[in-house]
């Protein structure tokens, strides 16, 4: 029986693109899984097409799992009140309906060195922590490591 993988996570908040890419490479990431509902960013280099191209140049794959993103109504409410407990409750209900995407992610993690992407620097304040928690409960991951981009 194969050992379960460690799933990595990273946020790009205040991260310079090249330091971000260097961090992924230094940790042996082979696939970045974008968990944003909308893979767009006002930050140069972090929108889907530009990010995928930059990752390809580094030999890192890109996969956008939109269904694991935070639904717009939850994201808007969180932006207004910064109540992570309320966002967590709503997102946990959403995540319970995303079995196919979670199983796909678990399969990817079994074959690749996967890192989950979202915006927030601190995974404890981001839905990606809820995704990794669910992956562990489903038996797809042994551990989680939250990466920090130097120089923020």
TrEMBL record:
Record InterPro entries: DUF488 (IPR007438), UCP024492 (IPR014519)
PANTHER family the record matches: BLR5642 PROTEIN (PTHR39337)
Protein name: Uncharacterized protein (DUF488 family)
Upper classification of the organism: Bacteria, Thermotogati, Deinococcota, Deinococci, Deinococcales
